[in-house]
Amino acid sequence: MRIKLDAIRECLEGVIPGNIATRAADGTPNIAYLSQAKYVDSEHVALSYQFFNTTRRNILAFPYARVSLINPLTGAHCRLSLRYLRTEEAGPLFENMKVRLAGIASHTGMSGVFRLLGADVYRVLDIEQVPGYTLPAPPPPCNLLAALRASAERLCGCGDLDSMLAEFLVCLEQFFDIRHAMVLLLDEAGERLYTVASRGYAESGVGSEIAVGDGVIGVAARERTPIRIGHFTAEYSYGRAIRESLTRRGLAGAVETEIPLPGLPESRSQLAVPIKACQRLTGVLYVESPQDLRFSYDDEDALVALAGQLGVAIRLLQQGQEGAECAEGGDQPPVGEAAVPAVPVAGAPLRVRHYAENDSVFLDGDYLIKGVAGSIFWALVRDYDGKGQQHFSNRELRLDPRIRLPDISDNLEARLILLARRLVERAAPLRIEKTGRGRFRLHVERPLSLVEIAGDGS
Fold first, then answer.
1. Which of 237, 251, 304, 419 has the highest local Cβ count within 10 Å?
2. CA–CA separation, 181 vs 289, rounded Å?
3. C-alpha distances in angstroms, 160 versus 134, 284, 314?
4. Alpha-carbon gap, residue 78 to 72, rounded angstroms
5. Which residue pairs, CB below 8 angstroms and at least 24 apart, start in 157-161?
6. What are 39's strand-pairing partners?
């Protein structure tokens, strides 16, 4: 029976370097080590192209090669017969291999030496097993299909974004044994991702941001493809990437006021999966582990499926929310809500400082939030301070020209979740409390002293 490529994906993890055999136009053979071989689909693999060497010259002259790979779990030895098709020098496959190569280079002390020039795509003509002793395959840590089914059933029971994100992270730990994870959503401009939920970190990092294209997370978002590495790689460390990005833009001083992105200090395996719905990027799921090679091809497949369900669910919740707001017909509070007495406030005034330049907000000198969430917060406290308004609806925020939300789907619900969690984490004397579908109350415990700093700093 012919061996299928899907059955030997463990051989393509890059744990044990493979060999590639080619021949020159005159028939002279050549054998070289192979840095990386990647599964593309059930009929194709991609090999890393790093140097213009003998192998490269041979494959351009005679497009056939044989590759030898070893399964790191069983020791099984496979030999693949390949035909060269093309080289990709950009795009998802290239970026995916570039990140993984950085991880391999770091793991082998070759950082700065390995540089990917292209991803050579080959058709697999045949696979043969080399005779020899092999170990029995270890049992999988969990049944991924069962985990996927259980998670899907749990997510179906969630009626709002806040509970769904929390349940999603619980499912990752309970069914997939993934204990460190975060969900980031794409901002309105499509340029940055912000953390809206996390689990397994000392600090939640809710509100932290990373630019599209920076680090493992940013590259996964930019290329709309999963990025998985099995070894620690300094080049793609996202925390470092954030700081370098700020420094490049002359904003090194802003580092101290940024919310740090959560992350393991000794992350050994990382997997970033785009969250998409209807071919549109919604965000990124990021998981990591202190264990080398924690995430396999099968884990990647399962999390891509789960992230896809999350993306569709987020989209449906957004549409349902907007439809419900229109059906309810406006901003009139439900009967009884307006009659709720104002919460008594006491104590020293809370100084709320808002910078119009980037909508950043500080409470008594401590940084709270910025951007759209900062703009929302500033509108809420101004209405509370000027009109005594405590109750708000998503609909009125969506239409409020001070917040400047885009006309298309705007992730307003996610911004409110982010803002509410930041207020709780900062132990602020004001909170956002949900009072119904698309409605909430601003709970204030101390008098407010509002200070607005204009864009010119005055």
1. 419
2. 9
3. 50, 19, 9
4. 12
5. 158/313, 160/317, 160/413, 160/437, 161/314, 161/317, 161/413, 161/414, 161/417
6. 45
Instruction: Give the separation between CA 439 and CA 398, rounded to whole angstroms.
Output: 12
How far apart CA 225 and CA 274 sit, in angstroms, is 6
| pLDDT, tens digit, 9 for 90 and up, residues 227-279 | 888 766 554 554 455 555 555 555 554 444 467 788 888 888 999 999 998 88
Can you give the pLDDT at residue 238?
46
> Which position has the higher pLDDT, 108 or 276?
276
Give residue 34's Cα distance to chain centre. 30
Q: Residue 319 has which token pair?
A: 């549409």
SS3 57: helix
In the structure encoding, which two tokens stand for residue 133, read together?
A: 């002793």
How many helices and strands, by DSSP H and E, does the chain display?
Answer: 10, 20
pLDDT > 50? residue 37: yes
Please report which confidence band the pLDDT of residue 337 belongs to, taking 50, 70 and 90 as the band edges.
Answer: low
419, with CB counted inside 10 A (0-12, 13-18, 19+), is: buried
Chain-centre distance of CA 119, in angstroms? 24
Beta partners for residue 70, in sequence order = 77
d(CA 45, CA 68): 13
pLDDT tens digit sequence for 434-452: 888 788 999 999 999 999 9
In sequence order, what DSSP letters do the residues of 203-232 get, joined into one string?
S--TT-EEETTSHHHHHHHHHTS-EEESS-
Q: What is residue 235's predicted lDDT score, i.e. its pLDDT?
A: 47
Position 121 scores a pLDDT of: 97
CA-wise closest residue to 322 among 382, 405, 418:
405
Rounded to whole angstroms, the Cα distance separating 391 from 162 reads 19
> Would you say the C-alpha torsion 199, 201, 204, 206 has a positive or negative sign?
negative
Q: How do residues 373-407 score in pLDDT, each as one tens digit?
A: 899 999 999 999 998 899 998 888 888 888 877 65
Residue where the block lists tokens 């439900």: 334
**Edge-to-edge strands of the sheet including 439-444?**
391-393, 439-444, 430-436
**Residue found under tokens 């590495």:** 229
Helix (H, G, I), strand (E, B) or coil at 344: coil
Tokens of 222: 């930019």
pLDDT at 336: 52
Structure token digits, residue 316: 């449906």
Structure tokens at 333: 């509070």
DSSP 382-419: HHHHHH---EEEHHHHHH-TTT---SS---HHHHHHHH
